[in-house]
Request: fold
Amino acid sequence: MKNLFTDDGLVAFSGTRVFDGKRTLMDHAVLVEGGIVSAVVPRDSVPTGAKRCHEDGCTILPGLIDTHVHFMRWQGPQFLAFGVTTIRDTGNPLKWILDRRGEWEKKRWPRILCMGPILDGPVPEHEVVCRPCGDLAGALTAVRETAEAGVDGVKFYVGLDPDWLPGMVKECHAHECRASMHCAGGGVLRAARAGVDEFFHLDGILADVWPGHPPGWLDLWGMPDFRRTLDRQRGVADDIRTSCITATPTLAYWDSQWRIRTGDSLGPENLRYTPSSMIEWQAVPPDPVSSERWRRALCAAQTFVGLLLEREVPVLAGSDVPCGLVPPGRSLWRELELLAEAGMSPTQAICAATSAAAAFLGRPDLGRLTPGSAADMVLVRGNPLDAIPSSPDILMTVQRGVAYRPEDLLAVQADSFVDEPWAVQFRRHYEKRIGRQATRGKNPKMSN
Ligand SMILES: [Zn+2]
Reply:
């Protein structure tokens, strides 16, 4: 595969406008040398001798950051093809993901930040990618060992005893790591009071706004009774604001759940580059009633995100690839579109996947195009700062100064992945589900 430009010498990338993560500059060029941005200058000030790469009518953005991904090798080139130059892995076995983080530079992959395994309670939900914790002492050891391995953050999961959280957060912070959590029955506010820095998927909000809710999961947000919780939602949003916890709602995942139940509206374009075994493991039968409830749940989730935005709660862009079959790269643009519908301006949405994400992750070298930044950027046709495109026309992705065309990246033969942790996990969940269905089929008593 050919690179359009290597990182030898000075290269000037320009389009109609440059968004540097904060400001929009018209007719400017991003000067790159040695994989680093050296300056952003007016186009007529580009030094003679610089190689020039100009795309008329396009906008240059900092490379996008997807803050919620479960990495598998096949995803790498696809992320880059859609301008995602950094991902944060939110759950994989520690050694496996540290090894992948160590090799991204040699691959056509985004740079990888990682959190190691998902720290869960004694009976973990995703046993292949979790580290189970039986008691507080075990949980503190898990935090310490994960943090000391040099991860970029630590992730807590639904099965942890809420009483352990203050100690676990303290241990995280003692290692200068941020603590992020997929909350559930214990609620988000309790995690926030314990000092957790970020919560995923809006899970746990249900426990805060609707105590005693009927059994079910995020789809309960689509029930008519959920609307009656609006006053309480406002109060919870106020408390979230006060507690300074960051939200990563992964609306693209919510969006996937109504689409996946319609049978066909995931669309061939969305799944074009997804391995067929992934589709087989995650596909669910069409169910119009459940699909409609999930669609309303997504709207309710967007309303709640709107309440957070009104209160200036930090909200980051994360897709949850590949859960719900959300496709790598493309789904982050969908996330931005959904965040814009929830109340962000297009510029704020792009910041949620660039400068704001980098600030939360403690990586001032990413998400910006200023002198000293990593030369990670995406050249997209038109002006996404006016409206987030449903189908972005990416002309080029630049990573550490090396430029790629999406069509070349999408033609990369996917690495084998069937023995990777999340492949094993998805296959196990699938076999359990199929096994249950088969058992029900054989035993009429159980089919009711
Ligand atoms: Zn996830």
